[in-house]
TrEMBL record:
Every BEACH domain range: 1-241
Organism: Emiliania huxleyi (Coccolithophore)
The protein's name in its UniProt record: BEACH domain-containing protein
PROSITE patterns assigned to the protein according to its UniProt record, in alphabetical order: BEACH (PS50197)
Top-level taxon: Eukaryota
SUPFAM superfamilies according to UniProt: BEACH domain (SSF81837)
InterPro entries in the record: BEACH_dom (IPR000409), BEACH_dom_sf (IPR036372), BEACH_Domain (IPR050865)
Coiled-coil annotated residue ranges, if any: none
Amino acid sequence: LSNFEYLMELNTLSGRTFNDLNQYPVFPWVLADYTSPSLNLADPASYRDLSKPVGALTDDRLAQVIERYEQMEAEADMPRFHYGSHYSSAGAVLFWLLRLEPYTSYSIELQSGRFDHADRLFASLEEAWHSCTTSLADVKELVPEFFYLPDFLRNDGGFELGVRQDHKRVGDVVLPMWARSADDFIAQHRRALESEHVSSHLHLWVDLIFGAKQQGQAAQEAHNVFFYLTYEGAVDLESVA
């Protein structure tokens, strides 16, 4: 069983499905190197630390997360949390798959008939990784397409995605230097997912997303507590109905 197949099985068993943007399959960031001219999959430094949630990967942001958590007052109707956003959401799926229908149309609908501002679109893998490891508001993980579908990285539809403040037009996703093409990125990214390093650490990420560190004391200690309404059972749907 490959790591890709294993993660897809876990997603399916947990109720995640390609048919629901709010419960879309979630995959981990596995690499931390988006700047080198060549990718060394034998070097542990090339990989993301799978024992930590995205929001706790850098010391600076972790310090901010802890400070905010400790300053929050635990209220009966608003439990404390480390992250106000989530690692998986409809918005995150549409962000990643912007160039691929039907997600393109959904993205336009979400923004009242137009694309979001060019500076907020998925334009570069290096920039996306930087945002996900520095911004308190960005803790997105990845989607399965990052490991098998190069099409979502290309603007084959010729969509007018706008011009950024740096005067660069948004088109195809800007790839790391080590990727010669979208197809090459997917191939190397898949090799990273199936590497010995990821295979020996993947269970740590699974604990955070699907396992014992999702909630409770273990989640607090792992700095893995999200806004309370993102958890199953947080809202009494019968009383709302």
